[in-house]
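Minutes, methods subgroup
Present: GH (chair), OT, SY

1. OT presented the first of two proteins processed in the latest run. Sequence and structure tokens recorded below as shown on screen.
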Amino acid sequence: MTSETLEREHSRPQSKWRYLFRLAPPVIIIGLLWSLADGPSALARLTDADWRYLIPAFAAVNLQTIASAWRWHRVAARLGQAIPPRRAVAEYYLSQLVNQSLPGGVLGDAARAVRARHEAGLGIAAKAVIIERLAGQIAMFGLLALAGTWAILTPGGLTLAVDQNQLLIGMLAFMVLALVVYVGLRFARKKRSARLGQSIRTALVANGAWFEQSLLSAAIVALNLASFTLCALATGTVLGLEAVLVLVPLILCAMLVPATVAGWGFREGAAAGLFPLVGATAAAGFAASLAFGLVILAASLPGLFVLFRPNIIRRPS
């Protein structure tokens, strides 16, 4: 995703047929899950969700948004773009709201880069947005690699419990994850073609940036995992440490698939397919993922305040 791509995503008109095409996959997948993963049971879990867990899950998502905005602020600063922290937080909330509302998952980020172009040009603004998002993906995949290795090598590690009745759902999860890998590889090729290497080193590695970025990314990943785990608790599922460190990142990675709206459908398919691996039901995974999606949607609503109060993100004259 280059600066030209970001500008094109922000400026080109989006036909209603394109929107409908992007809306089809989550609707179809959730419809299939309703049948395969005992939808009525998942809905019962969701309606009986414990607010004592949903409230801290909501707080964790908001903290994650603020921390991500700070990471963007610091990445931009190292690339020579000055974005005040208050404006960075407001912009990030607005970006999250757009990404939660429209297909594709990048329109909010594209608009954020375009609005921030005045400080240092669209090229630097686009790189700051891309690198900040890339830092989050590196952290999540890094955790997944470390936790997966630990679970495999530890005696008595992650114990999987699978029966034949759950095979079809597991296959669905496998296809979702395979698609995520495919999208990730294409994303990496675009990064190479954009020649971002030097900017990535400047923003994430050089002059002590690696330490600051590692702390920020670790905190953001921990808040994401905590929020999903709390949503699972709210809907009646207790996840062990290994499940949190291995399965939850896999579920969250399904949200990277761009052919959907904010990960809906693909995330639920991954959760329904992976929860049985640790002895929970597919319905439990379905319910936990639905709760998590609703919490994220609710946590993006402060973006409405920013939308109707544009002076918050207006550059000082």
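2. SY then presented the second protein from the same run.
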Amino acid sequence: MANLFEQNRNYVLGDPELELLGDRTKLAQWRHKGMGPAFYRLGRKIIYRGADLNAWAEANRVDPGAEGRA
């Protein structure tokens, strides 16, 4: 799997790389609904680990060619 995010980096809201997933509003909706990638809440600060972002992206990967294969 190719990593979309740096494994050992922490990402905070406002980092342009997070826009691959969606804007701040979309990420806030996912957190509220218990969806999306794992995150840390430190006071009012939201932190995403690169390893968690990559794991979430891989878990949500769709391979259209694999649908019809058995």
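Chair's summary of item 2: Residues 10-60 form one domain.
Next meeting: continue with the remaining queue.
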